[in-house]
TrEMBL record:
Taxonomic lineage from the root: unclassified sequences, metagenomes, ecological metagenomes
Name of this protein: Quinolone resistance protein NorB
Species of origin: bioreactor metagenome
Keywords: Membrane, Transmembrane, Transmembrane helix, Transport
GO MF term (any one): transmembrane transporter activity
Domain Major facilitator superfamily (MFS) profile residue range list: 13-479
Gene: norB_3
Any single GO CC term annotated in Swiss-Prot or TrEMBL for this entry: membrane
UniProt-annotated location(s): Membrane
Length: 486
């Protein structure tokens, strides 16, 4: 194997990696906006479509630590290539999803493969960046990598709406497969990179991975399908039981072995715990996107393209302000920018909550809200990451960063699933007490949909409040602050 210190990363490799990141954040995440169009064409139940939307982030979150460890042990380039293969086949499955009874299994399978692709590419590519670039070259590579992930997530709704309206949603995923093929070709010939193995007998925690996966999937199905199944039905109660039993089994297993899938010792560090938990919660606020975008399509009769255009401010803001978060970290430390970011996100949600106004007014509120959402996330992102990782010893940096990224994906998965579940579950009937408190202007035939959206958005606001409280109690004021010498 070529020694890593003899090889320097180049733009060919870097752009290949970025294409892999975009396949997940830019192409796969378009379902946040086009799910309404997809469910109508495929004749799929709304709750099953909600599962299809959120399951990609769920599987990415579950397996990101796993594939990060596999990459370190067996080769990062190998794992990235596997991720591209997952992306190609997953994207094609989604693109060719048939209409009718086979729609659900084919679409779910494709979305799972897309999630596994992200779990492979994200940790392995970051490890390659750290290994094959240094100094200012590494900073540039990290910035471009971040723009691929944050920029991709920012523009995905706009891109998805434009494609669905003018070309057809299936071509989004055909394009994703082509981009993945190009990325695979660009990284070909890259020397392999592995971590230095201090323990060649290290074993994978298959029992921990399995129990964690079963618990998370059961919880996801319960959250997404509960309103259809009945929250107290025998199937729902069985799903709750499976979640509890496998969660207890997972915790028991992880506390008994030395090479655990998730090292609970990391959470003895209160700063790391606070940053990771608030990261989970703030990524959960992604649910505000699917609720507001569905509301405007289902309740306001807007097209996917029209609502996608409203998110342009979100994409621009997150790219424009992400370096501002870095500067705020250096001047004020982690705590204040994290809190400011959360407050701005909270204001964004508050602007989306007045679903009682007319559609024209709501569209204006949405433009401001999505822009503020991007600013808030940009303020929060770098300070939170720095707080989580800079306070860990080198021996725990790898597993700590993996769990932190896992919190991002799982937060988004459950935030989307719960928010969509609340919206779908409540949109079938009017909520009398809310109608007595708030007057809903304009059309009344969509009243239950607007009420359901208001409550689902209130859930997202609650997540922000809990995130702020978590930061206040766990992140010291001077964390991450650069103290200038006199």
């Amino acid at each position: 194997m070529v020694q890593t210190n003899q090889y320097k990363g180049n733009d060919k490799l870097l752009f290949g990696i970025i294409l892999g990141v975009l396949a997940f954040w830019f192409f796969a995440q378009t379902t946040l906006n086009i799910n309404v169009v997809m469910s109508e064409e495929l004749q799929m139940n709304t709750s099953m479509m909600n599962i299809a939307v959120s399951i990609t982030a769920l599987f990415s979150g579950i397996f990101i630590v796993v594939f990060g460890g596999i990459a370190d042990r067996f080769g990062r380039v190998k794992v990235i290539k596997i991720g591209f293969v997952f992306s190609i086949f997953g994207s094609l499955l989604v693109g060719i999803t048939p209409i009718g009874p086979l729609a659900t299994p084919v679409l779910i399978a494709g979305r799972i493969l897309q999630g596994l692709s992200g779990a492979c590419i994200m940790p392995a590519s970051l490890a390659l960046v750290k290994t094959y670039w240094d100094g200012t070259g590494r900073q540039r590579a990290v910035s471009l990598w971040s723009m691929g992930s944050w920029g991709g997530s920012g523009f995905c709704a706009l891109f998805g709406g434009l494609m669905a309206q003018n070309v057809g949603w299936r071509y989004i995923f055909f394009a994703s497969a082509i981009v993945s093929i190009i990325g695979l070709l660009l990284i070909s010939g890259t020397p392999e990179s592995k971590a230095v193995q201090t323990n060649s007998t290290r074993k994978f925690d298959f029992a921990g991975i399995f129990t964690f996966m079963i618990a998370m999937i059961a919880l996801q199905i319960f959250v997404s399908k509960g309103s259809d199944l009945g929250w107290t039905s025998s199937v729902s109660l069985l799903l709750i039981l499976v979640t509890l039993v496998f969660s207890i089994a997972f915790i028991t297993i992880e506390n008994r072995i030395s090479e655990a899938f998730i090292d609970f010792r990391l959470f003895k560090n209160s700063i790391y715990t606070g940053a990771t938990l608030s990261n989970f919660l703030l990524n959960g606020v992604t649910g505000m996107l699917i609720v507001s975008l569905m509301l405007m399509q289902v309740g306001g009769n807007l097209s996917a393209q029209e609502v996608g255009l409203l998110t342009l401010g979100y994409a621009i803001a997150i790219l424009a302000f992400i370096r501002v978060g870095e500067k705020l970290l250096q001047r004020f430390g982690s705590r204040k920018p994290m809190i400011w970011g959360c407050i701005i996100v909270g204001v964004a949600i508050a602007l989306l909550m007045p679903t009682n106004v007319m559609t024209g007014t709501y569209k204006l509120l949405a433009v401001f809200a999505y822009t503020l959402f991007g600013v808030g996330l940009a303020f929060y992102a770098t300070p939170s990451t720095d707080a989580a990782l800079s306070n860990l010893p080198d021996s725990q940096a790898g597993s700590g960063s993996g769990i932190y990224k896992m919190a991002s994906s799982l937060g988004a998965a459950f935030g989307v699933a719960i928010s969509a579940g609340i919206f779908t579950g409540l949109s079938g009937a009017e909520i009398d007490w809310l109608n007595q408190v708030i007057t809903f202007a304009g059309r009344q035939d969509n009243l239950s949909i607007r009420q359901a959206a208001m409550i689902a958005l209130a859930f997202n606001l609650l997540l922000v409040v809990i995130a702020i409280v978590t930061i206040l109690f766990s992140i010291p004021k001077e964390t991450g602050k650069i103290i200038k010498s006199k």
